[in-house]
Amino acid sequence: MTTRDTRPVWVTALDVAAAPRRTIYPPPFAARVAGRERRRLGDVFGLRNFGVNLTRLEPGAQSALRHRHTVQDEFVYIVEGTPTLVTDDGEVELQPGSCAGFAARGSAHHLVNRSGRDVLYLEVGDRLPGDSAEYPDDDLAATQAPDGTWRVTHRDGTAY
Q1: What is the pLDDT of residues 44-91, one digit of tens each?
Q2: Exposed site from 12, 18, 123, 144, fewest CB < 10 Å?
Q3: Which long-range contacts (CB under 8 A, 24 or more apart) does 11-19 make?
Q4: Dist. CA 160–CA 158, nearest whole Å
Q5: Rounded to two decimals, what is the model's pTM?
């Protein structure tokens, strides 16, 4: 017997509740993303192969520490506001309608909201297992466990 999936097939994105504000980053790194709010749209639909978040950055907040993944590809699309994209190649201010993509092992990247108003953007990333992340500007490393949780350490592997 098959049970019908009761998840919606469509929603109004801003009606999806924001995820609890938490981060994998230890202090003092966590303060940098304190003004980030995510609505986990992919989870609403039960998507397993990739995640989709509608993310809001308050003025002064950043999307993440500047990082690159070993497995995960990422894509962002700017809906509102003018975030600064920081990559290995420098900085550029994005506008609504701008998009950027980051292949695994490619350019380290993050968004920083240096403007005086909120930034709203879509972020899409795959959910392949065995990922890790490198943070070239910080003494930090992240490794994904088989259950999908993340372990964050110093670059040398010692615990925080």
Answers
A1: 999 999 999 999 999 999 999 999 999 999 999 999 999 999 999 999
A2: 12
A3: 11/41, 11/44, 13/39, 13/41, 13/54, 14/39, 14/54, 16/40, 16/41, 16/44, 16/54
A4: 7
A5: 0.93
